[in-house]
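Run folding on both entries below.
>entry_1
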Amino acid sequence: MKSLSLLMITKNSGELIDSSLKSVLGLIDEIVIVDDYSSDNTRAIAKKYKAMIYKRSSENLGKQRAYGLSKCKGEWILMLDADEIISQELKNEIISVVCRQLSVVGNISGYYIPYQNHFLGKPINYGGENYRILRLFKRASTHITENVVHEHVIVNGKVGFLTHKIFHYSYRNLSQTYKKFADYARREAYRKLSQGERTSFKKLILYPIHMFWARYVKDRGFKDYGLRILLDIGFAYMEFLIYFLMLFDLKKYKKSD
């Protein structure tokens, strides 16, 4: 099997990083973590798995991941967040496709992996929560673009699709979920202002309503269990907060890279 590196960005990720790193044991040849000066036990847990840890602070998640990618030595990269766990089935599938690259069959440079998101401990499947992300790729064929919210992975070559899922525990409780939305809103407001966009009364009022309708009604979020509605209210709250924060000067929130 060709060498495989795990790339992870962390900041106060002690709650789930142990489960995430444990899920890749027997699959990964090296673990590269870029840590934004965590104040909890994140780095202590990572050291148990012999991770190479680079302390670096940046508001730009794309820059953080690109920096981490430059530190990886594996021919293939698996990119996970600390709240993401892979199953044994996905582990076996990754071993299979990376091994297959030893032959001339396929010649694929990256793979999209499906996600199984969870809200308050329960799996959710509708309302925009059923998707795939490019998370397994050849290091030499990949470029990661800068972005303060979600980075973009660009692969030079053909891409394929895996079957088994990454289990994502992004929305663990209401307090953590709404804090995450507030942080995303701040980052996205800064990005929009930096690109010259301006807010308006229409965006403040109609965009949050549309966000809730699109996720909960149009994309059938209501088909998940009853408390799912609190997640889509949270997305509407985030949308409102983006355009509300754009009324203010957000330069003071930007950290140096």
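>entry_2
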Amino acid sequence: MDNFRNKEREGRTLGELKDTIQQTIRVRRLTLVLFLILALYFRFGAGLNFPLPLIFSPLMWGIITVPFSRLIDVQNSKKGLHNVHFGYFVVEVSILTYLIHIIGGVEWIGVAYYVFSILYANFFLPRKKAWTITFLTIAFFTGISYAEYAGLISHWTIFEGNSPLYKDSFYVTTTILAGGFGLYVTTAYTVQIFARLFRQKNESLRERESKLQKLWKELISAREEERSRIAKRLHDQLGQTLMGIKMKLDILDKELDDQRLKEVKDLVGEAISESRDLSHLLRPSALDELGLAPALRDLVENFEYSTDIDYLTELNLDREVSGEEERAILYRAAQELLNNAVKHADPDRIKVSLTNENSLLKLSVKDDGEGFDPERVVQESGLGLKGIRENINIAGGEFEIFSEKEEGTRAVIELPLD
């Protein structure tokens, strides 16, 4: 069980990490689109004659995010995810180095162009990979700076009249030491500290969530066991005792033929019926023996028998809810929602539907009654609706109520089956 919980937690963490990385990629794409639009305007609209690679490089940078994004999506482990992300940072830093060279960034602290790559790498990647990207960035900038200084490659610039600072050895060395080592090593170290604190906090929250969920399951299980025990005693002991009394009264009735005895028999019969109903409400046998859908159908039939409301059911569940606790909270939620509709909504018709699409289960209770303000009622209500919301949230699902005055009410529960 602990191994399963660890895998579940790891899978959830991996999914969250993927989502966050995908968000950073989307931010990069938006930034590159804006950069590309500005570059096209200045090149062809304003007539600035700068190298066309300044347009093509960001375009290629944006294009490579597509395969990397897909590779990130298909990873099934953190190690694979970090390896793909590491490869992406290497490509990103390489393109940035080329862009710095094109626009003459070496002579006006182009090292600052790497700042977001350094921030992202040291936040998302493991420590060794993060430091590798940091020092690789410094190495790339150092290489391009000294290559231009030594005349190994041409110095380009999109600005006219600049002094040739790239030929100033003091300037180049100071930029590399202050900008590269000073800025990036400090930034990398600081970001890693905050990232570690963030991960520790998240891990602590996940641990508390896991303990809370475990406690919640134990409480649900204990509650249902107690209900089952009481229901069994009602059925097997009280029910049998009442039945024995009724049988003896039948014998006496034949001998005495007393009207008062008949009235007592009727009262005992009502007590037997009430004990059976109460036993069924406490723990329906269909929930354990047949599953959630048959138990809900049985529940709706009981409501239909005892009220003048028309009931519709749509119970199409091709996968059974495996968890005993989940079955219990869904059944109790439906029971509470039906009770509320009957007592407060004054409906003519109630529809109960239970369906699942892939791994998502959807339970809906809809009536054509008076309606209400959902926010106010949920806040002011007792434990019923609040209990449903709390249980569903802890189980990893969602609970929503949609209602308007004179427009009826629709309560929807969505719960992952896996």
